Amino acid sequence: MRVTEGGVELEVPGEQTEGVEESVFYNPRQELNRDLTIATLRAFREHEDRAESYLDAMAASGIRGVRAAADGWDVTCCDVEPDAVDLARANLERNGLEDARVEHRNVTALMHESMFDVIDLDPYGTPMPFADAAFSRCRDLVCVTATDTAPLCGAHFNSGVRSYSAVPQNTDYHPEMGVRILLSALARSAARFDVGVEPILTHATSHYVRTYLELDRKPTAADAALEHLGYVSSCEDCLYREAEHGLIADPLETCPNCGGKRLLVAGPIWLGPYRDREFVADVRERIPDSFATAEKGRELCTTLETELDEPTHYDQHKLCKNWGLPANAMDDFLADLRESGYEASPAHYGGTTFKTDASVGEMFDATSDSLE
Ligand SMILES: C[S@@+](CC[C@H](N)C(=O)[O-])C[C@H]1O[C@@H](n2cnc3c(N)ncnc32)[C@H](O)[C@@H]1O
Ligand SMILES: [Zn+2]
């Protein structure tokens, strides 16, 4: 089956069924992820002009490596599966990109041996088994996809604890729990090598989390990154939340809003920002019309640019249901919060999600008159 994506052409085993490509080596549902990767690499190269080498650590069809090589990166594709290696090599050749290297290796060994400016981890499931090797030698940027959203957001609790050395909780803001559990584990992995991470772009999109971590290879930067870790207590009854920084948990025992005792405590999670607004604006500018997901990608960047840095989001529908009141239009709801002096922004987790610095009680006072 022939696939065209981002201006390159690939041959992948599999068939097109009802217009949808089906192949073990090519997932069309990750096209937005890959389009944003190319735009992010373009923005990053402007920002860090010595960045040249890119490791597509789990290449499969080689699509990421092919697209990065076509964009001028010095690419190495790696995969542990011989069929994937042959396919990646053939796809590079098909696009006249024979200069790119293809490695048939366990990429963990490769990452320990060789240095790369940018490493892109895109495994099946959790990326954590590959994180230490990536942070040990990478110079500038580690890009990570995690598709194991059930463990990340606490729905598969034991698996989440095992993979991320943290306690995830299944809350009403589950995609953001996943984002912050992942970033916490990655920051702690990097800190082992005296490396500080700054997430310059992160998004949770349909069943995966994607993050881009700019590295600063010095102990003080690692210490600074760890300062962003902490715990969040969430009330299951009234949806109140409270976050506190630090590695020693001092969780709430009683909800200060409703007096309830059903509090979920998660951590250590990343409580800091998960994107750099200016960088995201730059990424948005670098998405060309020719990318199939251009409109979606730009919309996502715009929401990320304006999203508040509060550590958890709310879902307006869940909140109103909890109050026993009908939901109104999101814009009106957010306008009511702003009129009462609070900050409020849409969040990128879905059309009814938002962030605010108002507590759940303050939100009720600010908005409930309009919800009758
Ligand atoms: C989700 S696919 C990659 C998809 C691809 N990056 C894309 O954008 O279409 C995961 C790939 O990782 C490879 N893989 C798994 N473990 C690996 C390892 N230890 N070293 C190298 N490759 C590995 C698998 O063979 C598989 O091809
Ligand atoms: Zn409560």
Automatic annotation (TrEMBL):
Keywords: Metal-binding, Methyltransferase, RNA-binding, S-adenosyl-L-methionine, Transferase, tRNA processing, tRNA-binding, Zinc. It is an enzyme of class 2 (transferase). Its EC number is 2.1.1.216. The keyword Transferase applies. GO terms for biological process: tRNA N2-guanine methylation. Pfam families: TRM. It catalyses: guanosine(26) in tRNA + 2 S-adenosyl-L-methionine = N(2)-dimethylguanosine(26) in tRNA + 2 S-adenosyl-L-homocysteine + 2 H(+). Zn(2+) binds at residues 235, 238, 255, 258. Transmembrane segments: none annotated. GO terms for molecular function: metal ion binding; tRNA (guanine(26)-N2)-dimethyltransferase activity; tRNA binding. S-adenosyl-L-methionine binds at residues 34, 64, 79. The keyword Heme does not apply. InterPro entries: SAM-dependent_MTases_sf (IPR029063), Trm1 (IPR002905), TRM1_arc_bac (IPR022923), tRNA_met_Trm1_C (IPR042296). Belongs to the class I-like SAM-binding methyltransferase superfamily. Trm1 family. NCBIfam families: PRK04338.1-1, TRM1. Dimethylates a single guanine residue at position 26 of a number of tRNAs using S-adenosyl-L-methionine as donor of the methyl groups. This is tRNA (guanine(26)-N(2))-dimethyltransferase. It comes from Natronorubrum daqingense.
